[in-house]
Amino acid sequence: MNTPLDTFLSDQALATGRDLAAGGTPTVVILPAAGACTWCDCDVLAKAHDPRFCAGCPNGAALVLVVYSADPTEQPQRIVLCEGHKHEAMQFLTAIIAAGGFQ
């Protein structure tokens, strides 16, 4: 259960991320989460890969990455992850942003 302080701090983090993105800086805010991890462990380069049938990671979620684009018309993307996929997801997002994504 979230305390009022938890809610205040998460709202402040989201507002800061939104404000940074509005200034032209793509931003990722990390918050606690519940539910199931949505990261795909499939071999996406395999010939037989069909993304419609990926059930995602079977582990429970520990955090959500809220990704704000520098484009103010874009809605923030929410990526729900288990602790085991946090670093892989951050590396993936870093590569996308470095290549000019989320601008």
Please supply descriptive tags for the structure shown above.
alpha+beta, three-stranded antiparallel β-sheet, 3 strands, 17% strand
Strand order of the largest sheet: 1-2-3
Question: How would you sum up the global shape?
Answer: flat
DSSP summary, beta strand count: 3
In percent, how helical is the residue content?
25-40%
Low-confidence stretches: none
Topology as a string of helices (H) and strands (E):
HEEEH
Give a quick summary of the entry.
With 103 residues, the protein is of the alpha+beta class. It has helices at residues 4-22, 86-98, and strands spanning 27-32, 63-68, 77-81. A 3-stranded antiparallel sheet has the order 1-2-3, with helices on one face.
Overview of the molecule:
The protein has 2 helices and 3 strands. With 103 residues, the protein is α+β, with helices and mostly antiparallel strands. It has one domain. A 3-stranded antiparallel sheet has the order 1-2-3, covered by helices on one side. Strand 2 (63-68) and strand 3 form a beta hairpin. It is flat, with a radius of gyration of 15 Å. The protein starts with a helix and ends in a 5-residue tail after the last helix.
